[in-house]
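Can you give me the bound-state structure? Components:
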Amino acid sequence: MLKALLILSSALFTAATAWALGALLLRRLRVRLFREEERYFALLTGFALLSSVMFALASVHAVYNVVVLAVGIAAIATAWRLKLHRSEAAAPLAALPAFWNRLFWIVYVVFAFLYVVHAMAPELSPDGSSYHLGLVYRYQRERGFVVLPGNMYASLTQGIELLFLFAFVLGRHSAAALVHCAFLLTLPLAILSYARRNGFPRAGVGAALFVFASPVVGIDGISAYNDVAVASILFACFYLLQVWDTERNNSLFVPIGLLAGFGFAAKYTAFLAIPYALGFIAWKLRSKPKELWRAVAVISVCALVMVLPWLAKNALIVGNPFAPFLNGVFPNAYQDVAYERIYAKSMGFYQGLKSYAAIPLEVTVRGETLAGFLGPLFLLAPMALAALRWSAGRRLLFAALFFGSPFAANVGTRFLIPALPFLALAMAMTLERIPGLLPTLILLHAITCWPSITRKYCDRWAWRLNSVPIKAALRIQSEDAFLTKEWPAYRVARMVDGKVPRGERVFSFSPVAEAYTSREIISGSYSTPNRALMETVWTPAVPGLRPGWGQRFQFSSRPLRGIRLVQSATDASDNWSINELYVLNGDTEVQRKPSWHVTANPNWFEAGLAVDNNPTTRWSSRRTLEPGMYFQLSFDTPVTADSVLLRCVNDQNHAELRLEGQTLDGRWEVLSEKPQQFELGPPLEMRRMAIGELLARNIRYLLVADFDVGTDEYFKNADLWGLKLIGEEFGTRLYEIKTFQK
Amino acid sequence: MKLTPFLLLCALVGCNRTPQLQPLPPQRVSVSAVRPDSIGSFVAMNHPRAELYFVSDVSKSLEGNVWRWAGKKPTLRFRVPSTEHLSFTADLTVPELTFRDTGAVTIAFVVNGHALDTVRYETPGEKHFEKAVPAEWLRTDAENIVSAEIDKLWTSKANGVTYGFILIRAGFID
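Here's the bound-state model for the whole set.
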């Protein structure tokens, strides 16, 4: 119970700190809002400010318990001293009719109880336990940001994760999840107050509960995710713009800009808040250019305060401010265009989705393929179009469309959450016109979204809340006992902690619940170098990856300053790659010198892999074939050669290569228009060579899940790989790499 | 001139856009280094230096850029850098054409004078042979001689030449 109290108080302390910071800002700006709005916007803008404070603390590695406590206490004490907790000065919004007030609070309290219990229970969400909190745990251990270019998730903006970090240092995982839950608990209140302010309170009750009870909103909001936070930020931004439109108080540009920028800081897709805010203001002030430019400047500067630190962090660490995206525009060593395309494709059409026509039913009722469902009520979403009759409805529908547009790039149900408040309001505005229908639908929605009811109609493995884990939430059942029973990934993470000495690194083909292990996990899919390493370890195990194909370019013997392979074909499926490149003279390989240099275009970052004398590593273009790609080797002193031999994987049949040589006078001339192609056969000792690459990177442990590529090979031929099985948990084997070879 | 944060950002990220020459990485110790002047542990029949591996009874003529005819007892030589955990493998074809006359054939695989295996092929078509070779049969300081003797030859009615089977690739793998 004490632990539960610590968790709850840590989350409340985080929210109180945020509120205090926000209240101080709003007081300073002399913003006039209704009482309910004042609290909400203080909290939301405070979250933005607290996130920035945490960014600064994490940047200087000052994330200590005492510092976090000091920040919180200072903010709360200052707000208290200024009596900001008393809102007598602000007028309340018009009261809700009694029936609607009761209806709202009954449904709200029931679901709020469910959500708080779940958020307090140990964190077991897939993304939350792997990277959202995995990174937070790492930052907590290191007292701040860690340079992790090999982890694509560390390159995403982490505005919400920094709020998690504030709570985590005090109350660990569940405190962080409760911070996200705070966004969940306040979002319906914001929807309701927006509707009350704009004269459709009954629709506000309906929309607030439509959103709040929605199963995907619930499970996302109680997890250490960020989608509900993003929805709250976007809605707050939209709401404040409406308030400004009514009040014309230009002080509001500051919180509007901060919230718009905080959207980007929370999640890339929420960058839309910035063009939305600027576009809205530009439209409203189109006839007052002087006022417009001032507004645009204030909003932009405030937004950039939230945005620029993240861009700068990525630019410095990864060389791409928008990492892990836009790698074509900002080529870098850590992410590549080919994977970015594969990733985008997989997000745009989830595995198992039969067709786009199946999406409406998947996102409302089924819930397995697209990871979550909104509830059957949202099958009525087309009725929202009737709200086009009213200007408020048109504004809401535009916002729903605008903020929901990232769904086109990622069809996961949770990507609809940011659009949901707007859609729900438009739906409720329409539905309330039919007497008695709205309260009936609210009750039906609440019933059909309750965990014991959802299981009767949704897919078996739909992402949803299942039970009410009160004992786990109150820590009557220990965290370890609960997670051991409920979350296999936790058992794997604990095995790693138990078997791997501190300071050691573990290479894993699949993501690990890093929120529960303090060992450094090198996850095979998280970056280009990691993927290259993963392919290397796969090479001996997967026949299709073995470099058994040779290409030989023959030419008359001559002295050269360098050689260049130029690729001239176009193909949308093949990448070009080279495992090893040998320069030959007669029947002898010209010995490589450390003073030689290598480059390639594209992906010069990995060019060395083709000249490292390890046939299990390879340079890959990591782009599909385009004319003009090249691979170049430069000699410090002229080398006499008569052929170049490539050892490759036979997976690039569409590539068309020619060999060019740099003559002594510096000119490049064609040496051979076409290679002779033949089979070289598999090199010996590939296993030793492949595993040696892990050792060369100080990785002495390998984690292989039963669904990973090559799992049987590593197990059956463990001795040939130099592997020793030291642990197995839920089908995942942990090997220690025993052999050390240079 | 003031350097705005944006320009600074562009400068920071811009440096990586042009391919850069970099020194060669540390060289790994590989047993599979290319030595075109000498034989290795594995040969495909379309390898430009395949004939270096032939001791006897393998055609000098490459067919279809992939395979060669083998006679009664094709014999090849290989070098291996170590003797542990090696298997001998061969991909061969018993042609439909010869099988019609010879029926089932038996091929005896011999490594350095040790009978590795004898396999009876009851059907024509592509065959894959693979079997672990005891380390003590092999040597690293000299060539390893491997033969695959077929029990029945086929004689072409067109030219009177005798043929055994089709060889595609052979050698040691680990």
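A couple of observations. DSSP finds 26 helices and 15 strands in chain A. The radius of gyration of chain A is 29 Å.
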